[in-house]
Amino acid sequence: MTDAVVVGAGPNGLAAAVTLALHKVAVTVYEADDTIGGGARTTERTIPGLLHDDCSAVHPMGAASPFFRSLDLATYGLEWCRPEIDLAHPLDNAVAGVFTRSITETADRLGPDGPSWRRLFTPLTERFDELADEVLRPIAHLPQHPITLARFGSGALTPAAMTARRWRTQQARALFGGVAAHAYYPLTRPTTSAVGLLMLAAGHRYGWPVARGGSRSITDALAAILRAHGGRIETGRRVRWLGELPRTDVTMLDLSPAGVIELAGNRLPPRVARAYRRYRYGPAAFKLDLAVEGGIPWRDDACRRAGTVHLGGTFGEIATTERDLHRGRMPERPFVLIGQQYLADPSRSAGSVHPVWAYAHVPHGYTGDATEAILRQIERFAPRTRERIVDSFSRSAVEMPAYNPNYVGGDIASGANDPLQILFRPRIALDPYTTGIPGVYICSASTPPGGGVHGMGGYNAARAALRRLERTG
C-alpha cells in the first residue's frame, strides 16, 4: 500500500493529507504543537469562554476554495456564518465605505461610483468559480477557461493605484485599497490589483464568512475527514531533520522554504537550496486580541454591523503606509484590520463581553509594541473604546515565529507578494511543489497560490505527488 508522511498540521498540511487519503494512501501527519491548525487555531486568550482566532479569522477564500467545496465539510462540523455587512471602511469626514455580498447593494451605497463597481465586479463574480479554478493553481498549467483568465489578468497585473482611479468617491477607492492592502505590497507596484479584485469578487460570490466556533472548526473538519479515511495525526511530534522520518512513498512538508532548508540540509540539490535561500519574506503582522464590554462604539453605524472593519483612512493614506512598510519604517498610523466575528457567530462571546480580533501591518521583523498604535487607530473612528476593554492579549512580529515557524520575521503570508514571486513561488519550476529530493514536496502557503486558509497549496502539492506516483507506478 502507498504511504505518506505530512509534516505540519496547518490547513495546507491537512489538505495534502486529506487529498492523499482520499486516493487510498496511508497518511500520518506529524504536528510539532500540541494542537493542530497552524494559522487556523482558536483559543481563549483573554477571559474564559471568549473565543479568539489566533491568526486567520475571516474566510472569503475558504468559502470559495475549490478544494474545500469538493469536500462535505458541513457533515464534519464546519458551518459558515455571515454578518449583515461583510466589510466596512470608515473615513474621517465622510460615511464609511460598505461592502456586502450583494453587488447591487454595494453599488447602490457607492452612489456615482456604483455603475463602475457593478461593471467591474459583475463578470468576475458571475464567473468566479471558473476564475478560482485557474488562479488557485500554479502559473504553468493549460487554462481550461482562457477567456475568463485573460479578462482577470488584464486588470490583475495593474497597480492598485491605477485601478482605484476608475472611481471618484473616497468610499469606493478606500474599499478597494483596503482589500488590495492584504497583499502587503506597495499599491503603486504592478500586480497589486490582483488580491483586491480576487477577494472582492470572492466576497460578492460567497461573502466574507467566519467559521462557527472559530477558525479551528475548519482544520478540525479536515482532521475528521482524514481520520474517517484512515489517516493519523500525532501532535507534539517535532521533526528536526528528514532522516528521522520513516521511509515512505511521499513526504509532504507544510513548511516555509527556510523550514525546508533546516529540515533537509544538504539533501537539497544546490540549485533548489539557492532558490529557497533567495526566497523573499514580506512585512509582518502585530496581533492584538481584545475583550470588549458591549463591543466597539463605532461612530459609523455600518461599522457596528460589519464582520470586518479596515482602518486605514483614504486610499492615499493606505498607499503611503504600505510604501513605508517596505522601506522598513513603522507608520504612525498603521493599516489595521478588525474582526468582529461574534456578530455572525454569537457563540464566541461571554455575555456582553465580545472578542475583537485586530492586527496591524508592521515592518518585517519589527521588534516594537504596536498596541498603542492599534488602539489609536480604533479610537480615531470609535472614541472611548479603551473604557470598554476588559482584557487584552498581544503577539508581536518577532513572537509570531514561536507561534508558527512558517511566519518568518512575522510574515503571516509566508512570502512577499512582489510581481515575480506572486507568479513563481517558492522557485521558478514547472512543478513548484517538488524539492528536488525524490518523493519530497513542499506544500505550505509559500507555494502557489499563496497565503490564506483555502487548502489549495496542500491540495495542489498532493495532486503533483499522485501524478508522479502514477507515472512511476
From TrEMBL:
InterPro entries: FAD/NAD-bd_sf (IPR036188). Gene3D superfamilies: FAD/NAD(P)-binding domain. This is NAD(P)/FAD-dependent oxidoreductase. The lineage of its organism: Bacteria, Bacillati, Actinomycetota, Actinomycetes, Mycobacteriales.
